[in-house]
Amino acid sequence: MKVKKVFILMLLLILVIAGIFAYSQKLKVEDDQFVYYIVDTKKQEIILYWKDNKKNNFKSIQNLKNWVEKDNKRLVFAMNGGMYKQDNSPQGLFIENKRQITPLDTTNGNGNFYLKPNGVFYITMDNLPAICNASKLSNKLNIKYATQSGPMLVINGQIHSAFKEGSTNLNIRNGVGILPDNKVVFIMSKSEINFYDFANYFKSLGCKNALYLDGLVSRTYLPEEDWVQTDGNFGVIIGVTTDEQ
């Protein structure tokens, strides 16, 4: 009986390792098409930024970079974090450091944001990341940071039903997904891509849920991969920093 249990445990371990290896290899293969950054929230902190301590909108990644450097931090990754209104205020839910800045938007409308279901990417006070259908977000969650956007790309392991394979609706796109090991992957296409193919990439990595953030305006700052885009005119910006060495 003991031998059988050991064999089963070893088999499960091999399957887990194989799964992790498979999606890491998939990422390497797709380097020419996507720029991506993986965050282990047990070791790194994801922060959602909108305004500085003087209540000025950051707007661009460069402004955010300048601001964190004043606090002896180094910006290692940044990406625009969801859709926004003309005044750069977040569209839909935005929670910053436990405080709700703008409320959840479950109304109907036109455009990508309202292609239901849309969703919420959030980080709990325990630094656990998640993405969920906006209409199913629990008000009992202890959320530290959250941003709403839409549409969902992958929902419970399935590509959004509105996306069509071979669609000619092409654009630069960026989004966020939760990997099988509960790490967060941020991805931006380097060239124009349709919704189906973009969602399918998240699915191929094992993401059960993934959320679209934005399109043509999207920018990513990832100097370790020689991908430096510091312009922009955004609402929420997602950032990861480290102490300056």
Describe it.
There is one protein chain. This protein has 245 residues and is of the alpha+beta class. It is 20% helix and 31% strand. The protein has three helices and 16 strands. It has helices at residues 2-29, 61-70, 195-204; strands at residues 34-39, 47-49, 73-80, 94-96, 99-102, 119-124, 129-133, 143-149, 152-155, 158-159, 174-178, 184-189, 210-214, 220-222, 227-228, 237-243. The strands form three sheets. Strands 1-12-11-13-9-10 form a six-stranded antiparallel β-sheet, with helices on one face. Strand 9 (152-155) and strand 10 (158-159) form a beta hairpin.
Provide a compact summary of the structure.
The protein is an alpha+beta fold and 245 residues long.
DSSP E strands, number: 16
Nearest-angstrom radius of gyration?
18 Å
Oligomeric state of the chains?
A: single chain
Average pLDDT, to the nearest integer?
Answer: 91
How is the largest sheet built, in terms of strand order?
1-12-11-13-9-10
Main beta-sheet strand count, sense and barrel state? 6 strands, antiparallel
